[in-house]
Amino acid sequence: MSQEFNIYCDESCHLENDPHPVMVLGAVWCPHEKVREISVRIREIKRKYNLGPEFEMKWTKVSPARVDFYQEIIDYFFDDDDLHFRAMVACDKSKLQHQRFAQDHDDWYFKMYFDMLKVLLKPDARFDIYLDIKDTRSAGKVARLHDVLSNNLYDFDRSIVRRVQTVRSHEVQILQLADILIGAVGYVNRAIQTSTAKLALVERIRHRSGYSLTQTTLYREEKTNLFLWRPRE
Question: Which of 12, 22, 13 is CA-nearest to residue 190?
Fold first, then answer.
């Protein structure tokens, strides 16, 4: 029987002309059979802090008033052996040379998405991938990402990556966790220091992971796996 995994993906500052020089693509993944257990535990932590199960955890919502809650969520991630995180940090988008490499920004974006996900995918396992729905282009993005993954994995019958679909993040607890971790990685790699609460979460993740969050980890790191990509000069 093949192992089955769910992968929950999100992104930060991925648009070509946004003012931010750093893009982060990231994913939290876990065994399919553990999804309900993990989701229940996250809701329990929300209730502990008088937050309803419908409360959506987001990096943009991190504040001094809720820093204890978010720190407990981070601790839960590191304490649960079934949860894993991978992020790709694309540094200095202003140096991208799409014409030189006969691509447009969308081509580059999907190459980066494949590079982020390929470390997680194994030919003897089965994967369902879920992305936060962003805009009206989401359906086309999902279809193209599935094509890119299947073609690069020679998975033409889609038996490895069975599904790529969008979901609404406020309904999916693990996707909300991905938003927090991606937000922290983006925050530190953009060298932002405007929020003491967010800095406290960054330090908590650094302490628990043992990594600076600004350098590439070993390829086979399974708990907090980071890759910093830089454009060719």
Answer: 22
Residue 64: partners with Cβ closer than 8 Å, 6 or more residues away:
196, 197
| More confident: 10 or 15 | 10
Q: What is the number of other CB atoms lying within 10 angstroms of the CB of residue 146?
A: 18
Total-model pTM: 0.92
Over residues 168-181, the mean pLDDT reads: 96
Specify which residues 28 forms β-bridges with: 8, 85
Give pLDDT, residue 1.
66
Please count the other Cβ atoms lying within 10 Å of the Cβ belonging to residue 233. 5
pLDDT above 90: percentage of residues in the chain: 74
Secondary structure of residue 164 in the 3-state scheme: strand
CA gap 178, 183 in Å, rounded: 8
